[in-house]
Amino acid sequence: MAEIFGMGTVGAQPGTIATGYIESAYLRDGSRVRIPLIIVRGVETGPVLWVGSTIHGDEIPGCEVIRRLTRERLNPTVLRGTLVASPVQNPVAFFTGTRLTEHDGVNINRVFPGNAKGTLTERIAYDLFHQGVAKVDAVLDLHSNSIGAVCFTIVRTGGSGKAWDAQWELADAFGISVAVGPVGQLGLGGTPSSGTLHDAAIGAGKPALTVELSGG
Ligand SMILES: [Zn+2]
User: Fold this and answer.
1) Ligand 1 center–CA 142 separation, angstroms
2) Tens-digit pLDDT profile for residues 108-136
3) Can you give the residue ranges of every domain in the chain?
4) Distance 141 CA to ligand 1 centre (A)
5) pLDDT at residue number 189
6) Domain 5-213 has CATH 3.40.630.10
7) What predicted TM-score, i.e. pTM, was given to this entire model?
8) Cα separation of 148 and 54, whole Å?
């Protein structure tokens, strides 16, 4: 039997679905950015998978993927392991329907693992990564290309070790076309430093995939 799984404001009992959020940066009016969470806590202990969407605010098909996963497909009373889903990983860019955060013009998927004292986008990245992604075992980051585009997952090359190898197992399990690409830049000690959520997760030892859906 699994134990309660806690993240942000959520405490998910085994065999249940619970919702809440990660509290992040303050906006100018004093309100706080809240990164939504839907946690499907399986009845049995097992791996914890992060599935996030809409890190770019105009890429919304992954929200529907998460709705189907959490509302229709997964039954926590027979599930081993836990799904942590965040349908809107950058709520500020989602609000304006833009790829970048309008407030500071930053692409959040170039600043991971974020900066607690940086710009608004860098603070959101910091909280998303350290309060969320850092607590799971594997990561899927759902993006979306234009309508009619071929769906594919991205597997990174340029490093070695367990997390790098496990990317391929994730890609096989996902079961669609795979695009292979090196990390943009490797920092000291081979740590990926391109600033994507994908590369930051691998740098923290967690197998990860960028998933490019289609639908605009
Ligand atoms: Zn994207």
Assistant:
1) 8
2) 999 999 999 999 999 999 999 999 999 99
3) 5-213
4) 9
5) 46
6) yes
7) 0.94
8) 19
Cα 204 to middle of ligand 1, angstroms: 21
Ligand 1 midpoint to CA 103 (Å): 18
Give pLDDT tens digits for 72-94. Answer: 999 999 999 999 999 999 999 99
> What separation in Å is there between the alpha carbon of 46 and the centre of ligand 1?
29
**Distance of alpha carbon 117 from alpha carbon 149, whole angstroms:** 38
d(CA 165, CA 157): 10
Q: What distance in Å separates the CA atoms of residue 142 and residue 191, rounded to the nearest whole number?
A: 23
Output the average pLDDT for the chain. 93
How far is it, in rounded angstroms, from Cα 186 to Cα 147?
33
Distance 197 CA to ligand 1 centre (A): 11
**Is residue 51 over pLDDT 50?**
yes
* Two tokens, residue 99: 């790829």
Across residues 132-161, what is the average pLDDT?
Answer: 93
Gap from CA of 162 to ligand 1 centroid (Å): 26
